[in-house]
Predict the 3D structure of the following.
Amino acid sequence: MKPFLDSTRDRRASVSRGIVLLLGLFIVTLLNDVASAQSKGAVNNKEKGADKVKSKKPTSDEPNRPRDYRSANFLLHTDLPKDEADELLKRLETMISLISKYWGRPNKQPLECFVVRDLSVWPQGAFPPEGLAKIEEGAGVTLTQTRVLRGTGEIVGAKATVYAVANRGIPQHEAVHAYCGQNFGHTGPIWYSEGMAEMGQYWKAGESRVNCHPEAVRYIRSSEPKSLNAIVNAREITGDSWENYCWRWALCHLLANNPNYYDRFRPLGLGLLMDKSDATFENVYGSMSKEISFEYLFFLQHFDLGYEVTLTAWDWKTKFRRATSSVPVTCTIEANHGWQASRLLVKVDEEFELTAEGAWQLSDDGPLLNPFGEEVETPKPTNVGAAVSKATKPKKTGSKTESKQEALPTMVPYQSNFTPGQLVGVLFNDYELGEPFAIPSNGNFKAPADGQLFLRCEESWNKLADNKGKVNLKIRSRDTN
């Protein structure tokens, strides 16, 4: 069949990098007239990996020749030993279960995957030229053929095939493209298709924390942030660079997990996969562009392995007001969340008096702390600025709580001028944050600028989840005028 190159939106390539940051996607369409239908081919390529495919001895004693393995949703052709092939199928099945639930569309037919460890044991002609080229590069490609009705262009069927090296993560990334191409006929624009494919290989049931490749954290945290417009609207090409894949993943991770935006993100994605003309980022999020830009940049500044967007989502709904000496502003601050609305609206140099009750911990078995990071033995009523009048130490269930998750290593060391467990504040004004400041232990503080006061328990941003406790605050103005 003679290949026909369609528009950029219908042509996606995904080129996989050997460091598991899997890159790029285009769709090549193949024409094949059959009765009233025609075939179109879409090719999803990933950017080149860092290493070429090298001959490796199998890890078991069985012959290192290609074999076929099957599961509910996959037909796997691979020269991996049986135990490794079974483990790969298990990972693929877990992934496809999660993404099919997310997009609300079960996989219609098995996805065929050729996964190669040692190219020399495969017979000549086992792969099409596109697949062979990417495997030789240490990468991967998904080839998808779609059948469409002549005249209407309606997609009536699709078949996707993955060709990938056996590097961990590359087959999973490509399988996301294969699922989308085979079940929707499209994979969406590059920013969405590659961002979601990167997410797909890391998804775990019931977990929203960052679990990407460590190199993505190091790169993003050390780079000038890429704007939303540059990601969503730029004329980027598939397989451009693994760095661009990092930004696409970051945006998709934020929108898919942040409670302020995920209700709109899934319908947007479905519209993109079904190639609906009104499914655009601007149509869905145009009214929230400032909010998304603020939270996106905040995420890029503070995230690390283990960071949870659900715990750091910004509060855009709470109303703020001025306090007086007789009518305080009250709020509750949770230890396991990021910046939280105090409800207090301040003016520069305005003075306040804060009283607090409660206590918190920075880990399941950590010491009980008052809101100023001071360890306390037994909860006692205290005066202005003290913190523990109603605190009780959380109960333990053995050495760890039932919700305790395996810790992920920190890639970028957290730096702070504050005592861990201390109550700190920041002022939000016109979508910008001032410099954080500590609330002193005597409870008296002066506003460094105008704005809305947000507060939190000082802790590394990616270690909030296991914090315990909360404090209840009353904030009065000390202005006697």
Notes: The chain has two domains: 3-302, 329-477. Confidence is low (pLDDT under 50) at residues 1-56, 379-404. The domain at 3-302 is CATH 1.10.390 (Neutral Protease; domain 2).
